[in-house]
Amino acid sequence: MVSRLIGAFARAFFMVLLVATPSLMLPTAVDTAQIVAFVAIFAGVMTFMEYSSSYPSLVEFRDAPPFNRVRFVALFVTVFCLSLIGKGGVEPTVATEFVTAVGQLIGASIDFPYSPVRLMVLMMPNGTDIEVLLAVRTAAGISYLTSLLSLAVFLITLRLFGWPTKTGAFNVWVNLPTFDPTAGGDVVQRLQRDGRINIILGFLLPFIIPAFVKLAADLFEPISLADPQTMIWTMTAWAFLPASLFMRGIAMGRVAQMIEAKRKRVAPVAKKPEYAPA
C-alpha cells in the first residue's frame, strides 16, 4: 500500500511538471500562469487517484511497464525540446541553439511533398511570416522524430523483451479497463479489430489533422502558432496522439496473440479423452 502511494505521488509530480514545463521556461502572462497551474494540479490529482487505487478506471496497461513510461518520456521530451526552442527566441543559450539546429535539420530533411511536416507548414494561413513557418517546420521535425523514436523503443521492448509477459502475470481487466470482454463477440477478434483501427488512425492522423485544421480555418478563426505555448501544445498533440494510437494498436494485437496462444495450449488438454480402467 505504501509503495503504491509513493509511486502514485511520484507519477503525479511528474505529470504536474510536464504540464508546467512550458510556463516555467517561457515568459507567461499572469492569467495564463493561473490556468496552467489549475490544469497541472488537476492532472496531478487525477494521476494520483488513478495509480493509488487498486482498481482500474481509465489508464490502460497500468501494470504492464514500460508502455506508459515510454509514452510519458516521449511526451515530456517533446514538450521540453519545444520549450527550449521557444526559449531560444527570448533567451538564446547553447542548449537552445543546439536543439533549434537539430530541429531545423530534421524538419528540412523530412519536408518533402505530401509529408506530414509539409502538410503542417501548408496548414498555416496565407501571409504567415516566414519566421513562423520555419519555426513550425522546426517544431514539427522535432515532434515527429520523437514520436517515431518512442514507437521504435516500444517495438524493441515488444520483440526483444517479450512485453508484457516478462513483467509478470498479465491481467486483461486491470490493463484494459475500457475494454469489456463480455460485450459480445469473440474477444480475440475484437482486440484484433480494435488494434487495426488504432494502427490505421495512428498512420492517418498526421495527414488528416493538418487538412482538417485547414478546412476549419475557412469557417472559424485560424489557429495562430506565433505564440510559443500554443505551438508547443499543438505540435505535441499532433505528433504524440498518432504515436500513442499506434502503440495502443500494437499492444492490443499483442494481447490478442497471447489469448489465442493460451487457447491453443488449453484446448488439447480439454479435449484429451479419458479412458475407463479395464
What does this entry show, briefly?
73% of the residues lie in helices and 0% in strands. With 278 residues, it is mainly alpha-helical.
**Number of helices, where a helix is a run of at least 4 consecutive DSSP H or I residues:** 9
- Unreliable segments (pLDDT under 50, ≥5 consecutive)? none
- Overall SS class: mainly alpha
Specify Rg, calculated over alpha carbons. Answer: 22 Å
Shape: globular
The main pleated sheet reads as: none
Count of β-strands:
0
Percent of residues in beta strands: under 5%
Helix and strand run: HHHHHHHHH
Give average pLDDT, whole number: 86
Portion in helices: over 70%
**How many angstroms separate the termini?**
56 Å
Topology (SSEs and partners):
Blueprint lengths: L1 H24 L4 H23 L14 H22 L5 H16 L6 H8 L6 H31 L11 H4 L11 H30 L11 H44 L7
Helix pairs in contact: 1-2, 1-3, 3-4, 3-6, 3-9, 4-6, 5-6, 5-8, 6-9, 8-9
Distinctive features:
278 residues, mainly alpha, 9 helices
Describe the protein's architecture and organization.
This protein is mainly alpha-helical. Helices cover 73% and strands 0% of the residues. It has nine helices and no strands.
